[in-house]
Amino acid sequence: MRSEQKEQTRQRMRQAAAEGFRSHGYGIGVDGLAKRAGVTSGAFYANFSSKADAFREAVAFGMDELLGGIRYFQQEHGLAWWPEFVAFYLGEKLTCDLAQSCSLQTLTPELARADDAAKDVFREKLQSIAEAVVDGPDSPAKPATQEAALAALASLIGAVTIARATGNEDLAKSVASAMRERLLGNAA
Fold first, then answer.
1. How far is the C-alpha of 55 from the C-alpha of 183, rounded, in Å?
2. Residue 40: what are its φ and ψ, rounded to 5°?
3. pLDDT tens, the chain, 188 aa long
4. DSSP label at residue 43
5. How far is CA 157 from CA 37, 57, 100, 101, in A?
């Protein structure tokens, strides 16, 4: 039972770290991460050796969430999974709270300044996500190669980032609509 509780606490801390870094970037302090997880700073350090370690875990956690989301869309929407995923990403992820946003969109700028270990985690997870897109069920306008999948993912995060930055709902919707058309064409 004790080890199960410890694992649940660790998972809660990983999720809290992911949400904290998504919301506040790498500038969030250990105290803020610990508070978000509902633990003390001492408990934080009992689970993570450093803030950089927590960031790597947050990156892995968030990218695993994205991979799980892609697999969910593939399972739930069958042949329509790619257009449904694109619509979701350019819809709900356009306006959700940053803590609940996609790690791919929110943590990528932070990774540019991160250590090599964090970049290694990101690169490995990103390749797995691109492979899942390519290896997923046939779907209208689905990227056919890993390079095309990476370009589509980059386009999605770019569109969401620009749409969020405008601060204007109409312009944000226009950006999302244009990207949806670009990625899906007639499948939109």
1. 31
2. -85, 165
3. 678 887 887 888 888 899 999 999 998 988 888 888 888 888 888 888 999 999 999 999 999 999 999 999 999 999 999 999 999 999 978 888 888 899 999 999 999 889 999 999 999 999 999 999 999 999 999 999 999 999 999 999 999 999 999 999 999 999 999 999 999 998 76
4. H
5. 27, 21, 14, 11
